[in-house]
């Protein structure tokens, strides 16, 4: 699912026009792992209404939402700035918890979001790194406190304000052997997505590189989540072409016949 939200971290109102659903079939896709998350009531009601209308039009078909999949386009409005992000649903659920409460302990926030504390700690780092939340430790070293940063006082702080940072950084002083080992490791990590790629091409026939990349980002959010750059994906697809599993025609990838 794709959801578009304008959030002033006080109240958000969404409508059916903000939701764009992608229907996937078990006939073409490998099993997709579910991650349970507690969606905000407004979003949950929207999904319920959407599914009911779909059932009325497509009876007897019914929608079964994969609530942890898809993307959410957020516009966050603060006292001194307005920022836009495209994030996974779990990231959106985390930041929306700060609409009515500006400070959370990691344990309380994990319970509100509906995920284990260790998963929350990994996911919330996105907002900490973007300067949207600040993190501090409590007397109990196993529990952290996260506070919403409502204004940017320290303007010298180098913070990236977009949700698309996909560059693979390699040290200039690393030798060719090190670079090769990194590339080999990336290829091994990419093999977990091969079934998804083959399933997509079985379903859609042919797809361009950027569409494959965006679809993987949308649906592969459970551990291991898809966090590769488009250049890394292109390298992996080239390997599948070399193995004669795929063909590349006019910039479109398709299954080898």
In words, what does this structure look like?
This protein is of the alpha+beta class and 257 residues long. It has 2 domains: 2-148, Cullin, Chain C, Domain 2 (Ribosomal Protein S5, domain 2); 176-255, Winged helix-like DNA-binding domain superfamily/Winged helix DNA-binding domain (Arc Repressor Mutant, subunit A), CATH 1.10.10. Helix content is 38%, strand content 18%. The strands form 3 sheets. It has a 4-stranded mixed β-sheet with strand order 2-1-3-4, covered by helices on one side. A 3-stranded antiparallel β-sheet has the order 5-7-6. Strands 8-10-9 form a 3-stranded antiparallel β-sheet. Strand 9 (246-249) and strand 10 (252-255) form a beta hairpin. The longest helix is centred in the first third of the chain and has 18 residues, at 41-58. It is globular. It starts with a strand and ends with a strand. Keywords: Cell cycle, Cell division, Mitosis, Ubl conjugation pathway. Residues 1-128 form the Cullin family profile domain. One of its GO terms (biological process) is cell division. This is Anaphase-promoting complex subunit 2.
């Amino acid at each position: 699912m794709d959801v578009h939200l304008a959030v002033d971290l006080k109240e958000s109102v969404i409508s059916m026009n903000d939701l764009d659903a992608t229907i996937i079939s078990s006939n073409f896709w490998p099993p997709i792992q579910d991650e349970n998350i507690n969606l905000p009531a407004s979003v949950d009601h929207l999904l319920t209404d959407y599914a009911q209308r779909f059932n009325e039009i497509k009876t007897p078909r019914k929608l079964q939402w994969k609530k942890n999949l898809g993307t959410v386009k957020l516009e966050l409005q603060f006292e001194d700035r307005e920022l836009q992000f495209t994030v996974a649903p779990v990231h959106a659920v985390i930041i929306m918890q700060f609409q009515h409460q500006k400070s959370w302990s990691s344990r309380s926030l994990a319970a509100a979001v509906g995920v284990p504390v260790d998963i929350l700690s990994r996911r919330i780092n996105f907002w900490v790194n973007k300067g949207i939340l600040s993190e501090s430790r409590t007397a109990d070293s196993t529990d952290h406190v996260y506070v919403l940063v409502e204004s940017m006082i320290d303007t010298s702080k180098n913070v990236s304000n977009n949700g698309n940072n996909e560059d693979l950084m390699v040290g200039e002083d690393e030798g060719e052997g090190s670079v090769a080992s990194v590339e080999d490791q990336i290829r091994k990590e990419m093999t977990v997505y091969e079934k998804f790629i083959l399933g997509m091409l079985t379903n859609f026939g042919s797809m361009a590189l950027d569409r494959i990349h965006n679809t993987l980002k949308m649906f592969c959010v459970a551990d291991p989540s898809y966090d590769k750059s488009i250049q890394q994906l292109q390298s992996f697809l080239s390997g599948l072409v070399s193995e004669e599993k795929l063909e590349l025609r006019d910039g479109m990838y398709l299954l080898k016949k």
